[in-house]
What we know:
Elements: H1 2-8, H2 16-25, E1 31-35, E2 38-48, E3 51-62, H3 71-83, E4 87-92, H4 97-109, E5 113-120, E6 132-138
Parallel strand pairs: 3-4
Antiparallel strand pairs: 1-2, 2-3, 4-6, 5-6
Family: Belongs to the acetyltransferase family. EctA subfamily.
EC number: 2.3.1.178
Pfam families: Acetyltransf_1
Amino acid sequence: MWTLARDTEVLDLNSSYAYLLWCRDFAATSVIAEVGDEPAGFVTGYLRPEAPDTLMIWQVAVSAQFRGQRLAGTMLDELVRRTGATRMETTITDDNAASHRLFTGLADRHGADWRRAALFTPEHYPDGHDTEYLYEIAPLRTAAA
């Protein structure tokens, strides 16, 4: 997962240790896709403790050679099915048009509404990070149309 995240050149890269812990502690709410024996992508997520029907998606990565094959959407649909979540949240920066399309597409497939609002703005960060907009998608159906 660390290598896939690094190779996207756009995701915030966590430590390799963080990805190992994530796999141990959040395996039920995350997914790794393989094509043949090769890791092709991953989605990390968790059910929010204050809202256990809400699946918060942390990162989505797809290897360059497997992009354009709907792999990210398939992984998200699998997590909705697996968790039974009726709501999904994620954060996206303004410059990430691909993620905007991915998550609004998920909303369309599941007949859900979506809304967006600033969650963390540059003054929240010590490193000048761009605004992260919270996308809230609900209600989700567990079987995509």
